[in-house]
Design brief:
The structure is a homodimer of 239-residue chains. Chain A is of the alpha/beta class and 239 residues long. In chain A, 45% of the residues lie in helices and 12% in strands. Chain A folds into 2 domains: 6-159, Alpha/beta knot (3-Layer(aba) Sandwich); 177-238, Helicase, Ruva Protein, domain 3, CATH 1.10.8.590. Chain A has 10 helices and 7 strands. In chain A, α1 links the parallel β1 and β2. The radius of gyration of chain A is 19 Å and the shape is globular. The interface between A and B is large, with 57 and 60 residues.
């Protein structure tokens, strides 16, 4: 069945055991694309031990210092959160998030923050959607690998029966996460030239609103090119 | 919502760490009724460590030498299996099994066998149904606590009211059709000033694409104001 690929991105994981257990969880559900962004301790014997028979997933995992590298080429980024609401993006339950992800026209990144604190604001700003696993309000301390297991399980469950063909496959490929990051960079630069930021030292709140807007629109490649062209035309006129 | 209670029964578990991790998995999903039948090592510091903040579930867990005691009072017994078919009982997927369990008129036991070998034939014979978590045919080695997590998650999901798709609480009113018409008029004017239209006599095709993009994003009032502000800033600079 043709369907989006799912990439698991673990951002700044503290405990190597969780990396190994996440690799095992992935492999049980048939997933193999693992990215480790700035893990605190890796490689580590504890990771290998907890991976059990899934050391091949660990061995083929890619490591990077920045999130940009790990998200490159992904057309949809879904971040995990423990909160029910977020300013940065809509919060979906796992089943809805997976259904959304499976309609994507290219690789999808599922992003997990560090164990204690979760995703940083900068990482949240990269997400088109957030996913929250429903938990006990009195104890939401889901282990990182357990969260990977639950979401990977939902992914696999969605593979089991024939998918209802909901969304029409877009003819034009979507803009990738790295293209969108470039677009936001260029947009911020142009707004700065226009003296548009009320507080030039803190463009983040306004940029976050704009990112949320354009993430929601889920630009395709041509739309991305048009918008970059407009930004380029504004910049040229200002020189 | 009135509904059956779920008891987690771990039969002859080998590794105390798995008992602790299972307790944590249960508590995150709001479950507290844990029975340990003839665990190989328990109590054990490894169990306590892996339980993290769920030591209360461990502390209130009941231990017994026989399965009979642990299943006493349960009106439905569902055993976990890694096999797709069984002679002893129908094999359900987790979602179906949970739906079945929730219709029970009394406590339901969810039974997990020892890590390596799974439920004994004697234990299988106690089960009304079996549940199989779908796994990678090449690697079905689901950790015991991970299996508890997945099934407890399904139980909790069945308790949740479905999120409205999109999950975005519309606190800010949407931009109206006439506001959007003004925005598109302003956008066309600015693009004209920037000499952005390849064919200045026919801006319609490009404008149509941009309208489609922004309509898809379904701007709210504040986003509309921000975008109009940006267009205003570009126009002022050009004068």
């Amino acid at each position: 069945m043709a369907c989006a690929d799912l990439r698991i991105v673990l951002h700044q994981t503290s405990h190597p055991g969780n990396i190994g257990a996440a690799a095992r969880a992935m492999k049980t559900m048939g997933l193999a694309d693992l990215w480790l962004v700035a893990p605190q301790h890796y490689p580590d014997p504890e990771a290998t031990a907890r991976a059990s028979g899934a050391t091949d997933v660990l061995d083929s995992a890619r490591c990077s210092a920045s999130l940009d590298e790990a998200l490159a080429g992904c057309v949809l980024v879904i971040g995990t959160t423990a909160r029910e609401r977020h300013r940065s993006a809509p919060v979906l339950d796992p089943r809805t998030a997976v259904a959304q992800a499976r309609t994507a026209a290219g690789p999808v990144a599922l992003l997990f923050g560090p164990e204690r604190i979760g995703l940083t604001n900068a990482a949240l700003d990269r997400c088109h959607y957030l996913v929250r696993i429903p938990t006990n309000p009195a104890y939401g301390s889901l282990n990182l690998a357990a969260a990977v297991q639950v979401l990977a399980y939902e992914w696999r469950m969605a593979e089991q029966p024939a998918l209802p063909s909901g969304g029409r496959p877009p003819k034009i490929p979507p803009a990738t996460a790295d293209e969108m990051a470039r677009f936001y960079g260029q947009l911020e630069q142009v707004l700065r030239q226009l003296d548009f930021f009320i507080d030039a030292d803190n463009p983040t709140p306004l940029m976050r609103r704009l990112k949320r807007l354009f993430n929601r629109a889920a630009l395709d490649r041509e739309e991305y090119n048009i918008l970059c062209g407009i930004l380029g035309a504004i910049a040229v006129r200002k020189e």
